[in-house]
Amino acid sequence: MFFGCKNLSFSYYEKKVLTNINLDVKKGEFVGLVGSNGSGKSTLLKLLCGILFPQEGEVIIKDQKLDEHNRIKVGYIFQNPENQIIGVTVEEDVAFGLENIGVPREKMLERIEWALSTVGLEGLNHADPNALSGGQKQRLAIASILAMEPEIILMDEPTSMLDPKGRNEIYKVIRNLREIGETIIIASHHYSDLEHVDKIIALNDGEIVYEGEKDQFYKSNVIQSELPFNEKIKRQFNADLKELVDEICR
Ligand code: ADP
């Protein structure tokens, strides 16, 4: 298995929040994780990247159980870009993780340049991260993860703190990441975040209630979620039509 989990269950003290979760994510796949607030999305992502450990089951990365040695292969992007900035300059921020794992200086500079250009922050190496816009800060967070060359990137509602411009910047970055074959899981309840996913996994009350194709998910009504524009229009049209027919038949 490239990445996923088997029979994963998790409780915060007495409170069970995830029950028997099984995931199988293929290399290069773009997966949307959806569910209402409190359904367990963040907890699942934290288990998948090794910030939390499950009481039952296991997370698998490239056929191995996730542990403190290989969890570096899983990158995690937080909801709030403010929480992820460490460096005094953009370049230092990206360098931080690389220094920690002992990447040689020359290689480090190469990776920093590549990561910054992939997220569209090239040339801002010496800028103060705190002076960046929300979208730029989140792109910097992505660059810092990307430079570590993870096997998979997990994003926990990466656009929810951003304005429309910032959100569009992140969509562009995600498109770039897909083009270079990155594997991504994005937790969100915004339809626009999920427009290009290969597959949807829906959680309800800590259990997977849907796994499959995106269009089918929006038709299925398996959980309440923001609908794509064409589905909204279709439903409104059907409702209006029904009202009209009812009126004619009355
Ligand atoms: P989501 O990301 O879908 O909103 P979460 O994973 O944040 O869901 O939360 C799932 C459940 O776990 C919720 O009932 C939430 O209140 C609870 N929970 C989340 N974090 C903690 C924590 N640190 N301690 C106790 N309960 C928590």
TrEMBL record:
Keyword entries, A-Z: ATP-binding, Cell membrane, Membrane, Nucleotide-binding, Translocase, Transport
In its UniProt record, a GO molecular function of this protein is: ATP hydrolysis activity
Q: Which PANTHER family match?
A: ENERGY-COUPLING FACTOR TRANSPORTER ATP-BINDING PROTEIN ECFA1, HEAVY METAL TRANSPORTER
Q: Which GO terms describe its cellular component?
A: ATP-binding cassette (ABC) transporter complex
Q: Which residues form the ABC transporter domain?
A: 3-230
Q: What is the first-listed, main subcellular location in coarse terms?
A: membrane
Family per record:
Belongs to the ABC transporter superfamily.
Q: What is this protein called?
A: ABC transporter related
- Going by the entry's taxonomy, the superkingdom of the source organism is recorded as Bacteria
InterPro entries the record matches: AAA+_ATPase (IPR003593), ABC_transporter-like_ATP-bd (IPR003439), ABC_transporter-like_CS (IPR017871), ABC_transpr_CbiO/EcfA_su (IPR015856), ECF_ABC_transporter_ATP-bd (IPR050095), P-loop_NTPase (IPR027417)
PROSITE patterns in the cross-refs:
ABC_TRANSPORTER_1 (PS00211), ABC_TRANSPORTER_2 (PS50893)
Gene3D superfamilies tied to this protein? P-loop containing nucleotide triphosphate hydrolases
Localization of this protein = Cell membrane
